[in-house]
Write a structure and sequence with these properties.
- By secondary structure, the protein is α/β, with parallel strands linked by helices.
- It has one domain (about 1-355): TIM Barrel (Alpha-Beta Barrel).
- It is about 30% helix and about 20% strand.
- The protein contains eleven helices and 15 strands.
- The radius of gyration is 20 Å and the shape is globular.
- Residues about 5-10 have low confidence and may be disordered.
- Bound molecules: guanosine-5'-triphosphate, S-adenosylmethionine and iron/sulfur cluster (2 copies).
- The site of S-adenosylmethionine has 20 residues, from strand 6, strand 8 and helix 11.
- Its EC number is 4.1.99.22.
- It is an enzyme of class 4 (lyase).
- It catalyses: GTP + AH2 + S-adenosyl-L-methionine = (8S)-3',8-cyclo-7,8-dihydroguanosine 5'-triphosphate + 5'-deoxyadenosine + L-methionine + A + H(+).
């Protein structure tokens, strides 16, 4: 992977807008900012991290609260970003998460702040996070079976994650969205149970196709549980109909859910089909990694170092310009559809989802 440190010859200067929204060469505008606040995690989900041997970034390489707030303020005031999501690694690992949320909300009161988390330890912190101004949380929940949780997440306890879901709801961070990655032969048979549970517990469930972003490079197209597989599996218990509400760049395609043969709509379920039904044409994301690099796409092979600028006294104008240049060269798409995979054009990035900030 290459990191642009500041050599003006490597980044483009022609065509890059100098003001207005954060756009790329293909006409997309980034309105959502996703910031990874740590690369560390207390779980080792098989589809994301290796079981052992993770090398974490040194603490001094992570963005500080003040640096995150500065970047977010620039994104909101210069680019018109409308939403900030904190992710990782596991955001709850950072003891200053509440301070960060409070500072973001104080600086940009009109901008919602949300978090994607595995929910471990959330039970004790949900109310404090809500009081600090956190608007919503999305929680990873791949299984309802404690043994399968142990196989998939390899650390932590299912009961702790479930307690986190309940605490987030009690604290008013609703709707709580649940993210489930299905793995063939491990938890794919649980799709209907997960949906029953989510409907009964008033959560918005989304199933996610596994992407080739695991640290072990163990992903295969043949083994991946596809959106079509998920719809088929849910059809045993449910009738699904497309939700006509516009998707507006959201990765999840939503379906209205009815119990088989019944009229009443019970809720919705989302399917995030990044591989088989990509949504890159409508992508609205700009990402900052935990060490302060702009990553224009999950599947980029290079990053642009803003931390270096922040820590060398650069002005907001300098940071803004470098960020615009980084996003201008965002790839058109991830290339992991059949065309890319079969032609050998697709190359897996050398950073795992946890390091990028999923
Ligand atoms: N291909 C692709 N997948 C993404 C992107 N962002 C999120 N995802 C996938 O969607 C899953 C859920 O993401 P979340 O962090 O919960 O965020 P979200 O779904 O955008 O959040 P909401 O705004 O609450 O709908 C992630 O685990 C990824 O697998 C993206 O930019 N590209
Ligand atoms: C990288 S995690 C970071 C936040 C938090 N630790 C969590 O698990 O929610 C963000 C999301 O990425 C998803 N994810 C991780 N690896 C993935 C992969 N290889 N393919 C698809 N989604 C993945 C997780 O399920 C989770 O919903
Ligand atoms: S998916 Fe989230 S919880 Fe699981 S290992 Fe990756 S960062 Fe940790
Ligand atoms: S893969 Fe890249 S371009 Fe496609 S939706 Fe995700 S971040 Fe956007």
């Amino acid at each position: 992977m290459s990191v642009f440190l500041g050599n003006p010859q490597v980044l483009p200067s022609r065509g890059v807008p100098t003001r207005g929204p954060l756009t790329d060469r293909f006409g997309r505008t980034a309105t959502d900012l996703r910031i990874s606040i740590t690369d560390k995690c207390n779980l080792r989900c098989t589809y994301c991290m290796p079981a052992e041997g993770m090398q974490w970034l040194p603490r001094e390489s992570l963005l500080t609260v003040a640096e995150i707030v500065r970047l977010a303020r620039i994104a909101v005031s210069e680019f018109g970003v409308r939403e900030i999501r904190l992710t990782g690694g596991e955001p709850l690992i950072r003891p200053d998460l509440e301070d960060l949320v409070r500072a973001l909300r104080r600086t940009m009161p009109g901008i919602p702040v949300s978090m994607t988390s595995n929910g471990i330890g959330l039970a004790a912190r949900a109310q404090g996070l809500a009081d600090a101004g956190m608007n919503r949380v999305n929680i990873s929940l791949d299984t309802l079976c404690a043994d399968t949780y142990a196989t998939l997440a390899r650390r932590g306890k299912l009961a702790e994650a479930l307690a986190g879901v309940a605490a987030a709801q009690r604290a008013g961070m609703n709707p709580v969205k649940l993210n489930a990655v299905l793995m063939r032969g491990v938890n794919d048979h649980e799709a209907p149970q997960l949906l029953h549970w989510a409907l009964e517990n008033h959560c918005d469930l989304r199933f996610i196709e596994q992407m080739p972003l695991d640290a072990d490079h163990g992903w295969t197209r043949e083994n991946m549980v596809t959106a079509a597989d998920i719809r088929e599996s849910l059809a045993a218990d449910f009738d699904l109909a497309p939700d006509r509400v516009p998707r507006a760049g959201a990765p999840a395609e939503k379906h209205l859910v009815r119990r088989r043969g019944e009229e009443r709509v019970l809720g919705t379920v989302g399917i995030i089909a990044s591989v088989t039904e990509p949504f890159c044409e409508d992508c609205t994301r700009t990402r900052i990694t935990a060490e302060g690099h702009v990553r224009s796409c999950l599947f980029s092979h290079h990053e642009t170092d803003l931390m270096h600028l922040l820590r060398s006294g650069a002005s907001d104008a300098d940071v803004t310009r470098r960020w615009r240049e980084a996003m201008w060269v965002k790839p058109r798409a991830h290339g992991m559809d059949h065309t890319g995979l079969d032609s050998g054009d697709y190359v897996q990035p050398d950073r795992s989802m946890s390091a990028i900030g999923g």
